[in-house]
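ping. complex inputs:
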Amino acid sequence: MHKEFEIEPLWKVTRHLSQVARGAAVPDTVIRGVRPLCVFTEKILPESEVWISGGRIAAVVPAGSCTSDEAQFFEGAGAILAPGLVDAHLHIESSMVTACAYAEAALKNGTTTIFCDSHEIANVCDKEGIEWMLEDARMAALNIFLTIPSTVPATTPEFETAGGNLTPSKIGELFDAWPEAVALGEKMDFVAVASGDERAHAIIAESLRRGRPVCGHIYGRENVAAYAASGVTDTHEAVTAEIAEDLLRAGVWIFLRGGPPTTPWHSLPQAIRAVTDFGCSPKRVCLCTDDRDADDLFLFGMDWVAKEARRFGIPAPVAWSMGSLHAATRYAMDGEFGSLGAGRRADLVLTNDDGDVHATWLSGKLVIDGGHPTEVLERALQTPYRYPASAYQTVTLPNSPTLLPELPKTPCTANVIKIVTPGIETFHDRLAINPSGGWESLLTEHNLCHVAVIERHGIHGEVAHGLLQDFGITEGAVASTVGHDAHNLIVAGKNESDMKLAVETLRTSQGGVCVVRNGEILAHVPLPIAGLISDERATEVANKTSQLKLAWNEVGCQMPYMGFNLLPLSVIPNFRITDKGLVLVRNLKILPLFEDQTAG
Amino acid sequence: MHKEFEIEPLWKVTRHLSQVARGAAVPDTVIRGVRPLCVFTEKILPESEVWISGGRIAAVVPAGSCTSDEAQFFEGAGAILAPGLVDAHLHIESSMVTACAYAEAALKNGTTTIFCDSHEIANVCDKEGIEWMLEDARMAALNIFLTIPSTVPATTPEFETAGGNLTPSKIGELFDAWPEAVALGEKMDFVAVASGDERAHAIIAESLRRGRPVCGHIYGRENVAAYAASGVTDTHEAVTAEIAEDLLRAGVWIFLRGGPPTTPWHSLPQAIRAVTDFGCSPKRVCLCTDDRDADDLFLFGMDWVAKEARRFGIPAPVAWSMGSLHAATRYAMDGEFGSLGAGRRADLVLTNDDGDVHATWLSGKLVIDGGHPTEVLERALQTPYRYPASAYQTVTLPNSPTLLPELPKTPCTANVIKIVTPGIETFHDRLAINPSGGWESLLTEHNLCHVAVIERHGIHGEVAHGLLQDFGITEGAVASTVGHDAHNLIVAGKNESDMKLAVETLRTSQGGVCVVRNGEILAHVPLPIAGLISDERATEVANKTSQLKLAWNEVGCQMPYMGFNLLPLSVIPNFRITDKGLVLVRNLKILPLFEDQTAG
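pong. complex structure:
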């Protein structure tokens, strides 16, 4: 927490706070003329005023109670005053900005506390990267807690090459060194966990033995029982109401993930039916954003997710409670965050009846007013954490990577990755191909493009080749050093020269995303920190990302940029590509690109 | 926890448990043919079976899933299988039994986890007494956690003389030495807390600085804001729906206290209206028993409280959830207790649709079957903790205490304690009296009896005298060394000689409760441990208590035995008697028994 917003721990101030609450001492700030949203009773209260002292809530009292002229008053004009939103699970790196920069967007959207999992930077820079980000978080104008990355690498060196390898002992060291580390992050290798994998359970043990909860990530229903029995107590991957109810029954908190409707991760509308249709209590249901690119970060924040929950049938106070108190409760931090309860941090949001955020307070200080950062926030944003030089040198590519596979000599079967937007899943298709017409006719005939993943951590520089079906790109190439989770460089395109330009562009910027066409760079978002993150302000990165998306569409890509980044994530169904080759996820098996070639 | 029921911590067994859950290893026990009560979704599920391994729940699976003949099967015959109840707040000493003995009654009533506050023994034996009881708890067949007594003595030496004085540093030492100490116990001096009293807040700080919650006890609405701002986050004293909603809004968990309807503490029916009538969410509402004498312990357990919640309009699965998961969540222990979630302790209860308990499992072992202890429980009950010799020598009375006050010589005003059953409150009445006819006519005319409180910790041996109006006793005397919270000896009666016999009876037994009449002891429950607790089995103590109550009624007492024990509790409204005199609670002021005496 940036020093501007640091406050005393509750145990040091209960005496003074009690005196403010009973009217024997004057509050610092009084927010009056507001209707408090009570996340405990799940009701919106009549017009009241909220007394703040030392950055904490002293009391919520009837309108007109404070008559002192020493307090600073803020007029709410009848609006709703709610607790700041608490994002139960996200990855800052997905937003391509630092933690310090992330704060601005979060606060604009009424989010004041986040639980982030820095497993992207961990996959590139190992434990050191996590510690940089924790230092970053300590200077941010936001309450930031870490769920320690649990699955780095996401699979094993046989299936992908990552820059990080978080062993159980490193995870234990992080827990012991960083009080912000409050849980183990999403244990993504759910098949390994359910199968009793030794390393996976040793990592879980590091968290449980310290009394820290274990966060989850699981697809499908068949592994739920074994996964939950492994000590995992939340997930943000429930994509149907049936799965959500299975998980709730097994004692797993559900984090409803709202994502921009054009992306593959807006699972909230389906999962929420466990409450609205099946009648499950919402008390163990939270909200989260998970991944947002820099552009979407401003448009689809937690405030939007809460509105989506309302749109799909949850009463407003319950939806806001899911988005605040419930997450704080899940992490056993509800004495400090997520409500207007006495003694809690004065992290507050002023909204209209539709849930639009007009103002945000952090530690009792107004940080967003009318949608804009106030002076105190501006000041904090201008003294961010600076990552060390080594964070800027992480893209080590082979000199002249071979970007296209060898063209088969005879008709054969190609194992292609079939894209079906807007889903996260990809599919495995066995395509009978006849290569006699060369690459161009082959790509056109089957609506294919090239894809290659280049190891970029300077370990062996290997390249894997594949073919994407229905990716949609009609010309040029796109490339990214954000290639979940190992973050090798992924490039896709229609021709070798554009693919090469895209790769070299990212080599020069030491990371980023770009779109090229006919030898021209149409858009480029440089991400020099770990090849994942910009060091610019969030608004700047959002602008560049917005331009990137235009170019992305211009060359015809049907799968959005963030879906593309997930193509190398070999824990998501069904058929993926890493630097080690084409991975059939369910069987954890590598397939060749071409097979059944007749003898030449 | 008795060694018979100790199990491995979850972090050591997740691998095996996951393998059981996915069917790759055989569960120890399968409870089949049951309808699981899911406290997460708040629904009763279709017929299923529950797999148990190593004392933990591995999975809840569809009926007929386990086909191995190596597992031990238990046939549920269509009954409901629910998590063991979790009592959010109670005092074991009120039940006049040891922790080891308490377990039997708790398990019969479906309670498997309790949060107890040993402030009675602390008031007699200070920190040492708490540590004895913690040792006792470690040998009990029950999950017992301590909320460290926070208010010992309940007021100050000016207002009562206690045997204990729990300073902030002693409380800190208890937190650091005993992992079972999970919270600070009810901070009863709510007026002092709300007024910013230094010692009260130093004690609160000891808990909060260790990340431990602070439990509360508050009457009335006017101090709620200041009390909540002091960091207190629960209370079991909400006696109306309005107070309950005030407290919920302020971020305070509500523990609905169910008490036998004939006693003064059945506040559940009123407070529950915050949910049923006012529409507050029940998610921050728990159930508790608080105080039960040995007799009522068997009849009015947590199962009965949960049934009361249903009777007053809460759906069955929600009521059971209030009585299990919610308390576990309040103490951030829901990863281990209070549900049928995977990995949780297999503390289970088999009930019919009315909520009657038929069987109880502790750590996966059947302990109650058809209402009776099983062999494994019997074994555990026969090897209880033994309190040390010094625990048996705590009643040190003056040699010949003066039991009656001096009869005034002229008409005057008497400050009498007016009893209004069945309330907890007593009232202050100023009675114009004419003593010319002597005590007998005076008592008869105004429906009075004598009451005296004798300091019994061997400190100064002072005696305070008072008069009770409408207590109802018609002959003889009653006495008790359980006199909340300082536990001085309280005796009430119609004549001096019976009062004396009652006192001497308790001196001889080193504590207890008795009823005497015309020189005969009608009933006597010896409580030799700290003058509060019997070392007999709960069923024995219950029998003796039941006989005591008959005698209690026989001599005409209208206020029940436990209400009588509260007469010296100077933090309950409105007019009380301690060894220091008659205390007007709201003003914390001592009044003389007689005033306005005309000059003789």
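The two ends of chain B are 65 Å apart (CA to CA).
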